[in-house]
Design goal:
Low-confidence stretches: none
Structural class: alpha/beta
Number of strands: 17
Distance between the termini: 30 Å
CATH architecture of the largest domain: 3-Layer(aba) Sandwich
Number of helices: 19
Largest sheet: 8 strands, parallel
Helix content: 40-55%
Length: 471
């Protein structure tokens, strides 16, 4: 039995189902259930002893961190409505799609207006910026006692948030990072409050998202030393700590290690737990590991490549059964794919793209509009076409990073920006639940912005790993 998509899972939770009902009856169901129980125990303890607490849930890509967060929000609303548990995310497309999916479903099932259904949903799932902005003009505590922050490692640093406040809100002298400001909002409560941070590795894809988990610990140490901190034993892994020494980062703080705060099993790729490890190896140029993993799962979770986009489209259509969803994806920097009809600068409407049916030209099924890493992060399809442009090339045994500006490609020299590009491809290569095909153009000798050699390197690299070509 396949696990549902995050959209189907959110609908089931919202209707009152348990997480066991919507997850496979194996390690992943056990994992999610144990994590929810651990969080509930922490919240109940904080409530009983008037403590303020913060929990960090870590997990491999696709492990169900967002699902765990939604599950906690739903459970706490059942346990005590006056806690006003809320799921907060800075991922606009994810929030829009979930809000729309739940509102459509609720209106249909309960024969209420879409407006009423939408209002109910927005109390439960919100854009983090709205929550943050509502708190700027007042110094009173929010009604929420439990706040779940999705993708908390992508929080803005103090410079980025200060610039934003000055530019967009006309607020001068704002000098807090996003973690510091968000903790300060919940800290206004006189008795208790609990923050749950959902942390993923290798997910930063946008400028300013460099606070990372260090930003949270830094704020806690400097401003909120009385808060209780709960982490898993995996938080010391480099993909979370980003080179910071965990012992130094958390010295003299109220740290509690709870193993159940880490989600180890991938829910997204229900046919293979090794896909995220394969993608990591592929992007880290660990050819041996990538090759070994590919050979292990390719019969159950097919990954192919092609240099013919029409072949890729035919393949995903043929693979899809029933309501299984497929779509085109590419990095936001893939600007020279436009000559192949893949126009990343044309912004999709995420709710239509992810939710509408095969008879709607705006849906993913039409394979006309392309979702970028910003549109699809946190969401998923059953089958994807990953379109690979010359922004990430493979030359001389290494990846080379480029940005297309004006009429030409320019080298990306900033370490931070090369990481964002790498993570963009990590996101794209981990969105398919059942399999995907990589489209690599052949290039065009007559076009200096799309020379064949820009693309041949990545084709040869993937071929060397053993990725089969579509016949």
């Amino acid at each position: 039995m396949p696990t549902p998509t995050i959209i189907e899972a959110a609908q089931a939770l919202y209707l009152g189902h348990n997480v066991e009902d919507i997850s496979r009856n194996d390690a992943s169901a056990k994992n999610l259930n144990q994590t929810t129980k651990a969080i509930n125990k922490i919240i109940d303890y904080s409530k009983a002893h008037n403590r303020k607490s913060i929990c960090f849930i870590t997990g491999v890509p696709g492990a169900g961190k967002t699902l765990a967060g939604l599950n906690i929000a739903v459970e706490r609303q059942k346990i005590a409505e006056d806690e006003h548990a809320v799921f907060l995310s800075g991922n606009g497309p994810l929030v829009n799609v979930l809000q729309e999916a739940l509102a459509r479903d609720d209106a249909k099932r309960n024969h209420i207006t879409r407006k009423e259904a939408s209002r109910k949903v927005k109390e439960f799932i919100q854009i983090i910026h709205h929550f943050r902005d509502d708190a700027i003009s007042v110094d009173t505590p929010p009604i929420e006692k439990v706040a779940i922050f999705d993708e908390a490692q992508r929080a803005w640093d103090d410079k980025s948030l200060s610039d934003f406040m000055k530019r967009k809100k006309h607020i001068e002298n704002f000098n807090m990072s996003e973690p510091e400001f968000l903790i300060s909002i919940l800290n206004r409560h006189k008795d208790w409050a609990t923050i749950i941070c959902l942390i993923g590795g290798g997910q930063e894809i946008n400028k300013g998202e460099s606070a990372g988990i260090y930003g949270w610990f830094d704020s806690l140490r400097n401003n909120y030393p009385d808060w209780d901190i709960y982490v898993s034993n995996k938080i010391t892994d480099d993909e979370y700590s980003k080179g910071h020494n965990f012992a130094e980062m958390t010295a003299d703080m109220n740290i509690n290690i709870i193993e159940d705060l880490h989600l180890t099993v991938s829910l997204r790729s229900f046919r293979s737990e090794n896909v995220s490890n394969f993608v990591k190896a592929l992007l880290d140029t660990d050819v041996h590991t990538a090759k070994t993993l590919y050979e292990q799962f390719n019969s159950d979770y097919p990954i192919f490549m092609t240099r013919d986009l029409n072949k890729a489209k035919t393949w995903v259509r043929d693979q899809s059964k029933g309501s299984q969803r497929y779509g085109l994806t590419a990095s936001s920097g893939a600007k020279r794919l436009r000559k192949y009809g893949i126009w990343v600068q044309n912004k999709i409407d995420a709710t239509n793209w992810f939710l509408n049916g095969k008879d709607d030209v705006r849906s993913s099924f039409y394979l006309e509009e392309t979702a970028t890493e910003f549109d699809i992060q946190g969401l998923e399809l059953d089958w994807t076409i990953v379109c690979w442009d010359a922004d990430l090339r493979f030359e001389g045994g290494h990846y080379k990073h480029y940005k297309f500006t004006g009429t030409k490609w320019q080298n990306i020299k900033s370490k931070e920006n090369t990481l964002y590009l790498k993570n963009a491809y990590r996101v794209l290569l981990t969105r398919a639940r059942q399999g995907f095909v990589i489209f690599i153009p052949t290039g065009d000798k007559a076009d200096i912005t799309a020379k064949p050699e820009y693309y041949d390197g990545i084709y040869q690299y993937l071929k060397g790993i053993g990725i089969k070509e579509l016949k």
